[in-house]
TrEMBL record:
InterPro entries: Bact_solute-bd_prot1, SBP. Belongs to the bacterial solute-binding protein 1 family. This is Various polyols ABC transporter, periplasmic substrate-binding protein. Residues 1-19 form the signal peptide. It is found in: Periplasm. CDD domains: PBP2_TMBP_like. It comes from Mesorhizobium ventifaucium. Keywords: Periplasm, Signal. Pfam families: SBP_bac_1. The keyword Signal applies.
Length: 436
């Protein structure tokens, strides 16, 4: 008995000593379902890396952005791994705020990351964030209403076709709007949609010398088409509708078409929540024959701040959480339908995933149709499809979004909204030193 007690004592002391030498890394992440699920699966990581302990700081999206931006800009050093978006990565990498991810391991397979997603997370050919989850945008439409209208949705439609279909599908007497699009003001709300749309109309935020372009005909054509389309065939109060509002309308059978995030497909096709689950088809976001489609590109990604003292341990965690093996782990626990989408080519070649997600191919095609390094028809000095990767864009994008939302609501004209957008952008770019 004494020997057993002594042995247990020695084991306990050894365990304590080991724990004292274990390295602890702090991970700041967003409170969405995929990230919450990841935290429940980290026993797999700690089993493979017993010398690394994980500390979590899980925050609502807006709070997360504020906290990690403040921490990295002030070199606060609170976090060893940060969850950030495609918007932040190129800006922070150019500021030397992020470490390049060059120690992800021999079996990580960086080349398997979908090129469009990797391009948005790279600077000068170096990957600065590893994508955990990716998305584009596409058309979700009612196959029954399209058939009733006597039309067939092409896989790659034009804006003219969308307008024609919206006109024929609109049935206000029965509460059906031909098309539902974002109208709520915000750089990540209506301007995510309108900036992506403007790319397909040949528009751009700035020319090669950073001069704002809202006074050019391409932006007039974009905004006028959008406002006219929504007034004739969109829902009432559309200027207040964002992703969640349009999702609810579509699920209730009140939209013939909805152009929005590819992640919405799993919601509109879920019979538990959608009254039209068995009637949904998918198509690429529209174009105008100019070589660019009106779809965006986004990824929630894991990055390592340059100020961390635990870079090696942090890279081990990032490699685990964004690996092919992690996708297989989720599938084994939750089923293939719940695997984080939009990051790896191999996932979309997997027959099991294709079977679980009938919208998979169109999602991948939509992601591949976006090029963050060449987002527009004419050349531009910035990267980003539905945003401009400069620090000033968050504020400017929201200001412009408010002006365009007012035009949709009929509170101002399209011409006045564009003039005010041009003035606001010129003031911002002059103050920022981009133009004289």
């Amino acid at each position: 008995m004494k020997l057993r007690t002594l042995t247990l004592g020695l084991l306990s002391a050894s365990t304590l000593a080991f724990a004292a030498h274990a390295e602890s890394i702090t991970i700041a992440t967003v409170n969405n379902g995929d990230m919450v699920r990841m935290q429940t699966l980290t026993d797999d990581f700690t089993a493979k890396n017993p010398d690394i302990q994980l500390q979590w700081v899980t925050l609502e999206e807006n709070v997360l952005r504020e906290r990690v931006t403040t921490d990295i800009a002030t070199k606060g050093g609170q976090y060893d791994v940060m969850t950030i978006g495609t918007y932040e990565v190129p800006i922070w990498a150019k500021q030397s705020w992020l470490l390049p991810l060059d120690k992800l391991g021999d079996d990580y397979d960086v080349k398997d990351i979908i090129p469009a997603i990797a391009g948005g997370l790279s600077v000068d050919g170096k990957l600065y964030a590893a994508p955990f989850y990716g998305e584009s945008s596409f058309i979700m439409y009612r196959k029954d209403l399209m058939e009733k209208a006597g039309l067939t949705m092409p896989d790659a439609p034009t804006w003219d076709f969308v307008k024609q279909a919206a006109e024929k599908m609109t049935d206000r007497a029965n509460g059906v709007n031909g098309v539902c699009l974002r109208g709520k003001a915000g750089w990540g709300e209506n301007m995510a949609f309108l900036t992506a749309m403007s790319n397909s109309f040949g528009a751009r935020w700035f020319d090669e010398n950073w001069k704002p372009q809202f006074d050019q005909p391409e932006w007039k054509n974009t905004l006028q088409f959008y406002v006219d389309l929504m007034k004739a065939n969109g829902p009432e109060g559309a200027s207040s509708n964002g992703f969640n509002e349009n999702l609810a309308l579509f699920q209730q059978g009140k939209c013939g078409m909805w152009i929005d995030a590819t992640v919405a497909a799993s919601f509109v096709s879920d019979p538990k929540n959608s009254t039209v689950a068995d009637k949904v088809g998918y198509a690429l976001a529209p174009d105008n024959g100019l070589g660019k489609r009106g779809n965006w590109l986004w990824a929630w990604s894991l990055a390592i701040p340059a100020g961390t003292q635990k870079a090696d341990a942090a890279q081990k965690f990032v490699a685990w959480a964004t690996s092919k093996a992690y996708l297989e782990l989720v599938a084994s626990k939750e089923g293939w339908a719940n695997v984080p989408p939009g990051t790896r080519s191999s996932l979309y070649a997997n027959p099991e995933y294709q079977k679980a997600a009938p919208f998979a191919k169109m999602t991948l095609d939509s992601i591949n149709a976006a090029d963050p390094t060449h987002p527009t028809v004419k050349p531009v000095p910035y990267v980003g499809v539905q945003f401009v990767a400069i620090p000033e864009f968050q504020g400017l994008g929201t200001t412009v979004g408010q002006l365009f939302s007012a035009a949709l609501a009929g509170q101002t004209s399209v011409d006045d909204a564009l003039k005010q957008a041009q003035d606001a952008a010129t003031a911002t770019m002059t103050e920022g030193g981009y133009i004289q």
